[in-house]
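Sample 3 of the quickstart, ligand cytidine-5'-monophosphate:
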Amino acid sequence: MSVTVRVPAKVNVQLAVGAARPDGFHDLANVFLAVGLHDEVTATPAPSLRLTCAGPDADQVPLDGTNLAARAALALAERYGVEPAVHLHIAKDIPVAGGMAGGSADAAGALVACDALWGTRAPQEELLALCAELGSDVPFSLVGGAALGTGRGEKLRPLEVGGTFHWVFAVADGGLSTPAVYREFDRLTEGTDVPEPAASEALLSALAKGDATALAATLTNDLQPAALSLRPSLADTLRTGRAAGALAALVSGSGPTTAFLAPDPDTATTVAHALTASGTCRTARTTTAPAPGATVLS
Ligand code: C5P
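Result:
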């Protein structure tokens, strides 16, 4: 018997970042949107905890105890006094270290898969609490859809989305370290007055209406200057997508994946072709949002 769980990637349509807190984290107003790129996590009984991964970037995924999926299985096992005797297999399609919460998705997927396999039947609040301990983006990977994350991003308020949005994601060569991008944010904002992060009412309204033009006008990512500073070539990718017809372009989370909002599916395809042909990214993917959170497939 095995359990397979499908988990979505995310893009931050608003990422407002406050000053560094005493614990090193940053308070956020983080508007998450789950998008239709997925990993699948399969949990199968095994003599002891084992992790495997397949997919184009599988060689970049750590298969030791640092992997968030392994840590999720261990956390659930410890919480319920169960042996973590499970083989977790990750079918990876979300870019690795790409700013799309792929590691967080695998953690949420592993948690839900092990919960079903072991029959622990953890209540949703318990799963969310375990997710929050694993990482700031993990609770959102569990719930999907759209949500406003405050605190370090783990306190979620679900948001209404009034339509389907068409996105293109340009996958870069190599990843960016999230802590390094936050450190660069601290360096770039040193000596300045960093405002308290607050959600944009115009952006929430655009999401609720399903209005792509209005959403495009309100997309912001405070980590973008830091990601561009560490990876200046991303500016060419952003320019290429805008020139090809995207309504707006921005760095996804801490990058280096870049995200392009398109007015319709045909324009999304045109933008993806232009990005691929330009050589300013490794590959470009089209998809839609919102996508559901962690879902048991079998
Ligand atoms: O929570 P998570 O483990 O995903 O965070 C990874 C890193 O990103 C943290 O160690 C921290 O450097 C940075 N971070 C932050 N403020 C947040 C979320 C993440 O500084 N709100």
